[in-house]
Design a protein that fits this description.
Layout: H1 4-11, H2 26-39, H3 44-64, H4 75-89, H5 97-104, H6 108-119, H7 123-138, H8 146-152, H9 158-169, H10 173-180
Length: 181
């Protein structure tokens, strides 16, 4: 296709739900999109356009089964996708590795090893990253208190939430809220 509009019309003829849970190609693109829109550095609109184009292509490939992931249908790919899906559905509460492993039908050590090999991060690094991403979204709502946001995102205390947020985002939740507002 010579232009993006033609590509979209050709490959997205109907609305469908993409199977397979969390996608290892699409999720980082969404994170990059969020980062660019937050930073708003020089050329950010062009970068966002490029990310959107990559996102559209990734979704089209996933719909057509044309790749994107190394081996999404493999048993390890399915295991990681199932674990990620469970994590995202339960971000607002405490989770243990044993609970996640039980849910996906594997042992703790096996899940931890496969998850690290497939994603490059530990299960709980992923949990923390997803909780911070959810917090960033919640911070867009000015009426929500930081305590409520911390609770909704699975942090047991406001101080732990603030400390973790600062480590991951490079600023406090309050500074982040001011920055995006």
């Amino acid at each position: 296709e010579t232009d993006l509009a033609d590509f979209i019309l050709h490959h997205f003829t109907r609305i469908v739900q993409i199977g397979g849970g969390i996608d290892n190609e699409i999720t980082p693109l969404l994170a990059a999109f969020r980062l660019e829109s937050e930073r708003r550095g020089i050329g950010y609109r062009h970068r966002i356009h490029a990310i959107c184009t990559e996102l559209i292509v990734a979704v089209a490939r996933k719909l057509k089964g044309g790749g994107g992931e190394k081996n999404p249908g493999s048993p390890t790919g399915q295991l990681v996708a199932a674990a990620k899906e469970y994590i995202l559905k339960h971000l607002g509460r405490d989770m243990t590795l044993g609970e996640i492993a039980w849910h996906v039908g594997k042992g703790e050590e096996h899940l931890a090893r496969v998850f690290k090999r497939e994603t490059g991060e530990s299960v709980f690094d992923y949990v923390r990253e997803m909780r911070i991403n959810r917090a960033k979204t919640e911070l867009l709502e000015p009426g929500l208190s930081l305590t409520k946001i911390a609770e909704r995102c699975g942090f047991n205390s406001l101080s732990f939430f603030s400390r973790t947020f600062r480590q991951c985002a490079g600023m406090s939740p309050t500074e982040y809220r001011r920055h995006i507002g």
